[in-house]
Each structure stands twice: as C-alpha cells, then as structure tokens.
Design goal:
heterodimer, A: alpha/beta, ten-stranded mixed beta sheet, nine-stranded mixed beta sheet, B: alpha/beta, Rossmann fold, binds adenosine-5'-diphosphate, binds magnesium ion, FeS-cluster_ATPase_SufC (chain B), ATP hydrolysis activity (chain B)
Amino acid sequence: MELPVQQFRTKAEQDLLDLYERSADALPGSAAIAALRQSAIRTYAGLGLPHRRVEAWKYTDLRGRIDEIPPLLAEADVQVGESELEAALGKAVLTLPAYRIVLAAGEFRGDLSDVGALRDEGVELGSLAQMLEQPPAWLTASLESGAARDDNVVIALNSALMTGGVGVRLPEGLTLQKPIHLIHLDAPGRPGSIYTRNVLVAEEGASATLFESFGTLGGQGIQRNAVTTVSLGAKSAVHHIKLQREAVETIHLNVWAADVGAEARYNGFQVSMGAALARNEVHVRFDGAGGATDISGATLARGSQHCDTTLVVEHNVPACESRELFKLVLNEEARGVFQGKIVVAKDAQKTDGKQMSQALLLSERAEFDSKPELEIYADDVVCGHGATSGQIDEELLFYLRARGLPEAEARALLIQAFVGEVFEALDDESIGDALAAVSAEWLGTPMEQAGP
Amino acid sequence: MLEIKNLHATVDGREILKGLDLTVPAGEVHAIMGPNGSGKSTLSYVLAGKEDYEVTDGTITWKGENLLDMDPEERAAAGVFLAFQYPMEIPGVATMTFLRSAVNAVRKARGQEEFSTPDFLRIVKEKAKLLKIDMAMLRRPLNVGFSGGEKKRNEILQMSLLEPDLCILDETDSGLDIDALRIVSEGVNALRSPERSMLVITHYQRLLNYIVPDRVHVLSKGRVARSGGPELALELEKSGYADYGQDEASAA
Ligand SMILES: Nc1ncnc2c1ncn2[C@@H]1O[C@H](COP(=O)(O)OP(=O)(O)O)[C@@H](O)[C@H]1O
Ligand SMILES: [Mg+2]
C-alpha cells in the first residue's frame, strides 16, 4: 500500500500501521468497508499520533504517552456474567432500568443483550461487525459523513481498525421509554487494543437515551478507541450519557460526533473517573435551524491521571442553542484539560452558545488547563465562556466544622456540592442519582451525604 | 462556665484583641456591645476556633478545659455554638442534608445515638415551626437566596438542634425587621436554661429589650472597657460609643 510520507515515525506510530497491515484481511466488512478502512489508515499515516504542537491536542501529548501498540482484543473470549458486570460497573449502575447491550473486549455479546426486547419496540439494531458485511444505507451514510470526520486521528484509526460495536436505528416517531445501556468491558490479563464503533440514527421525531458505560474486568495495558456517531433527524431527541471507569492503566480515546437536525435536541453527559489517560471528544454540528444541545459532565481524577475533555460545537445554521458545563475535581498530581470550541458560521444568526468549566484543585500539584475558543463569523449572536479554578473555600469549611462536621467529612460534603450541580441538571433522574452515587463513592463519602 | 483571661489575638499579623478578660457563669446571659471594629466578631471567631485568628497570649477555659487546644468540630461537640454574623451560603448542599450531617456528627462525638430519619424530620419540623421556618426553605441549598432574616432564623434553628451550652450570637439582630427580631428572640429565650451560657454580641440595645442580659460588657480597642447590669445598655443607647472611641484602623 502507498502511504503518505511522514518525516519520522515513533515506534508506536509504525506499530499502528503494522497492526492494520496484519489485521486488514481479518477485519469485518464488505469491499466498500475495506476501501473505507484503507482511506482511513492513509489519513492516519499522514497525521501520525497527535502531540502538543497540534493545536487540538495542546495539553495531551498522545505521541509522547504511547510507546507500544498491543494486539487487537477482538477474539478475547471473555467470561462475563452478572457478577463480572456488577464488579465492573457497581450495582447502582448495573441495576438501572434499561435495555442492555454488552460489548466485551469490543465484541457484541448478543447472549448478554436485550436484542429481542429492543426489536419488539421497533428498533433496528445489530452487531456492527455483522452489519459491516452488508451495511444498510443509513449505516454507510453515518460512517462516511458527518461532524468531525476530517483530520480526526481518533476517528481515522477507529475507521481503519473497528472490530465491533453496535448499530442502532430508531424509526420515525419512536420514543423509547427506557434507556439503552451500552456496556463496554475490557478483558482481564493481557494488554490489548479495543476499537469499537457505535452508530445511532434517530429518525424524525424519535427519542431515546443512550447510556454508555465503560468498566473493567481487570484489564492491564488496555488501549481503547471508541467512537459513537449520532445522527438526529428533525425534531428528534437523544440523551447521550457516559460513565467511564476504566482500569487505572488504560488509555481511553473516545469520540462522540452528533449531527443535529432541525429542532432536534442532543444532550451529552459524561462522568470520567478511570484510565491513566482519557481523551473525550464531543463534536456537535447543527445541520437544521432551531436545534439545541447541552453537553455537561464531571471529571474526577487523582494520582497521575490525565483527563482531557474537548468539545466542538459547530453552529452552521441559525437559531441553535448550545450549553456546556463541566466540573473537574483534581487531586494529587492529576491533570484535567477542558477545551471548548464554539464555531458560529456566517449565516448562523441568533446563535446562543454558552460554556463554563470549573475545576476544584484538592492538591497543590494538581493542574487544570482550560482553553476556550470562540470563532464567530455571524454578528447577531450571544456567546460566552468562562473557566474557574480554585481550592476548597476555607470559610465554608470553617462554617461546617463549627457545626460539628469533622474536617474530612466537611471537605467531602463541599466537593460533593461542587460537582452536585451537574448531576442535578441531568434530565434522567435515576441515571443522575446512580452517577452521583458512583461519584460520591469515588469521593469517599457515604451516600448519606449526597441527599437527605 | 467560660473563663477568658488576658486574651491577645492577631489577624494577618495585626493585634485585634489586646488583653481581654471575661467570665460567663453557667446559666447567665452576657451581652457584648461596642463600636464597629472593636473586635466583637474577632472574639466570637476565636471562641469558635477559626484558623486565621492566632491567639498570642492568654487562656480560654470552658467547663475547666482548655478551649484553645480543640479543633472547631471538637468545640462544637463540647457545646460551643456560634451564630454567625454572616452565615455562609453553600450551593449544592441541601439545608436539610446539612442539618442532619451536623446533628449526627455532634451526637456521635458526644456518644449519643444518631437520629433515625423519621425522628430527625419530626424534631426539625417542631423546631422550625417555633421559628416560623417553612419546610420548603430547608429543601433549598444552604442559605442560598435566603433573605437576611431567613439566614438568621436558620442559625437559631441550628442552635436549637445542636443543643449547645455556650451560645455565641454575633449581631443576630442586624438586618432583622421587628417581627423577625421578635421571632428570633423568642427562639433564643426558649433556649435559656440554668446549664446554658450565652454571649449576645450586638451593636444596638434594641435586641436586649427582648433578650434581657444578666451582664453587659463594653468592648473597646480589643478589651473589656466597662461592665455592668442591663442598665448599662440603656445608658449606651443614649450616649453612644463616643466615650469608647473607635479603633482608628477600622473606620471603614
Ligand atoms: N480576616 C481579617 N483580616 C484582617 N483584618 C480583620 C479581619 N477580621 C477582622 N479584622 C479587623 O479587626 C478589627 C476588628 O474587627 P471585628 O472583630 O470584625 O469587629 P466588630 O465585630 O467589633 O465590628 C477590625 O479593624 C477589622 O478590620
Ligand atoms: Mg462584627
């Protein structure tokens, strides 16, 4: 294969090309999909792994962080039962009322998934690997076009190497009463790479909640690349929620890309607490007037964890609204990154875009980097952004201690209060409560403190 | 009994309390009056254990123990309660959650059993009613968006729930209209008992019509300049604090 010339490749960069070469024949998909993979690996070869001089990766040096590329884990044959699921995600999350879909080491596990129940509701769905063999038009369209496709290394690698995932299509007007809970697991023991691609298409007027959780079965040296594209027809609504509690050594690369139709609503919510390095990208592109999006979440990091949240909202059409609120709690040497870009095209008048990120630093060594970017080409818009970073307020701490709360408990309550705001804003209350419970556990507070 | 002897305290390296002596026997209510900037709030913070207030000399004994050795939460458990001049707002913490955490923490430290949820709710309801506090208010984040009067009533509610025996009220009357003043005073008077000592800090005599003190002390330039009976408050009402000067640096 002819590849674009790159001046210099690190071992890991070359390993990725070799991994593709070795695996290409066995990767699932039709001839058209194989061609798509070829073109994607070429895109990657031209870009290499991103590093600090790439503006969008200013604070996350992926090239410097990855030394080796482990083999694909697609055929890992992982043992998964209820007890494994519970260990990976916690009981509160696992028992949420939902249609369950399980991806173990990237492999779609029909035996553990509520496929029948979803089909009964009228949902079209299947294992991505199978669908790629004879992709329906909606799937091909989602793979080939949409927000954030060009020059996105994570997506390019994903397109080249995707082995599993799920394709879901909600027909016109369908409202799913329960969320779809998409569970991503790793595999215990040996290092491995997992490339999953999920495609969600909501036709006109359809609405659903997609909850993606990432849990560990004891993975070591896992490199995960997970991409989900969401295509929202006119007046549809998708609530897209994520809980990431990967193994501590994992490298977690995740992209959500949503194309939002006229008067449609796309809400994203992400809680990140696992992985050594996590990069969460959310790209939202408005394709029809009157759309709305709200992207929020919480990052909880400690030790030497690095968590990067990068949002890009493209207002290409008039009268769309975007809201972003992220809270970060950073302890020890953890590093949190928040990059928020709002692009307002010339014709996108009456755009309303607001963005806020707030970090609570629990240690002097923790670091928060925030980079808002507003690119505004229209004149009649309301856009704003803000970022704050601070320590626990000593005055508040004294007030609580003067009321008898021991210092540790008072601190925990204040941290809980700091992040609590984002959970309260979550529309789905039962998921919000479960996620708040998981974060409270991380903060070391008994649930008592989280609500009366 | 509270015994303060030769208390010197500094903030940011500046001496605010300069040899203060004060004794409050069990069961008595003492008023502390004085011009703005004379160190009244400083005294209350030193008693409650605020960290940035450094005691450079003197002693504070509470029920025979050295108060200065204790952390703020230990003082709360030992029965010290400060009703803040400016209660803190804490977004994200429901008032009810806060009350329950505080009460249970103090009970635990005192070796008492924690309240069950229904018991706790019943007790809060009872005490809130006396202070004309709406239960809906307690579901809101702590003090956020509360009016001045609501914040002060909330302080007294906390005081009645935590059952302290040294109650320090720092300008609880400021910002209260006459109705709120009456409600708050009734709440405070209901807590008067032979075991409880109270230190009522106020700039104005008005509050002392409702909470009648056993003794009145005038604080000036970081010391007790004069002590007397309730009539001293009335006298000050007429003459003002002119005789006691104002700390030069605190005119602002
Ligand atoms: N945190 C602080 N930092 C610096 N100066 C302070 C601080 N708190 C109080 N002071 C100063 O100490 C003096 C006494 O203040 P305060 O105790 O609040 O007086 P009062 O309550 O009698 O009005 C004032 O001059 C005030 O400016
Ligand atoms: Mg004062």
